[in-house]
């Protein structure tokens, strides 16, 4: 059964996916999903393709309307890229990447607000290897296995972007993937929205307002800890810069 979804914003989490999605669905040619985060390819895959199609409003193809969704766990879940490729081989994929130190800190406070993280930030980050031990392997071995820890306690792992991007590049050609720096979205939203419109082959569109959506506030971080996180991510960021042939300034 065919499924006509034109674009997926796959992550990363806490990188501006909600803002970009909310900008995009204001475009007259974009039909929003019934909810922003459908989570079909990661958490609801067992519900089947008909359930997925039901998450979207009818799309008028005569008038070149597009449909898409934004589920930021997609980029990180080890099984999603292959599943998407099998069902939506022509889909366009949008990836937002933020300084991984800022992303990890924002992610931590997001989990605190959800009520699922009770450790202090240093302890939570230090606990990540123990909490994650064996979880990715279990997901890969058993597609029905749900790992709470893999979804919630991955403050460092989700910021190692290169592994995730390479996985998606294994299943999709480069011309179907658009990678955007979150900082560019935050600083120049009209420019980035037009870049996305160009990628989706729809006319540029100017919004009356570019508000920030789902932006969490958090207290100042200990500078020594911030520096340790920068040191941790530095080689990963360098590898990513080399792979993408760009300068990220993180």
Automatic annotation (TrEMBL):
One Gene Ontology molecular-function label: sulfotransferase activity
Domain Sulfotransferase: 5-203
Keywords: Glycoprotein, Transferase
Pfam families given in the database record: Sulfotransfer_1
Source organism, top-level taxon: Bacteria
Keyword Ligase: no
Coiled coil: none
Keyword Transferase attached: yes
Identification of the protein by name: Sulfotransferase
Organism of derivation: Microseira wollei NIES-4236
Classification of source organism: Bacteria, Bacillati, Cyanobacteriota, Cyanophyceae, Oscillatoriophycideae
């Amino acid at each position: 059964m065919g499924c006509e979804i034109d674009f997926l914003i796959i992550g990363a989490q806490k990188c501006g996916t909600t803002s970009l999605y909310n900008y995009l669905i204001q475009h007259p040619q974009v039909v929003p999903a019934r909810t922003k985060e459908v989570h079909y390819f990661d958490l609801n895959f067992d519900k089947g393709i008909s359930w997925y199609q039901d998450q979207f409003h009818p799309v008028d193809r005569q008038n070149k309307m597009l449909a898409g969704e934004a589920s930021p766990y997609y980029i990180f879940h080890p099984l999603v890229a292959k599943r998407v490729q099998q069902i939506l081989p022509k889909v366009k994929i949008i990836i937002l990447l933020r300084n991984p130190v800022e992303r990890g800190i924002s992610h931590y406070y997001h989990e605190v607000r959800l009520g699922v993280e009770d450790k202090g930030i240093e302890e939570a980050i230090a606990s990540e290897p123990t909490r994650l031990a064996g979880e990715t392997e279990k997901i890969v071995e058993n597609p029905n296995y749900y790992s709470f820890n893999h979804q919630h306690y991955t403050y460092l792992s989700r910021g190692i972007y290169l592994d995730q991007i390479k996985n998606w590049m294994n299943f999709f050609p480069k011309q179907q993937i658009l990678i955007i720096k979150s900082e560019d979205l935050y600083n120049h939203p009209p420019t980035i929205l037009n870049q996305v419109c160009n990628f989706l082959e729809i006319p540029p569109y100017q919004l009356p307002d570019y508000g920030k959506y789902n932006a969490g506030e958090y207290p100042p971080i200990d500078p020594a800890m911030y520096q340790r996180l920068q040191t941790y991510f530095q080689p990963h960021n360098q590898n990513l810069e080399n792979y993408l042939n760009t300068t990220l300034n993180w």
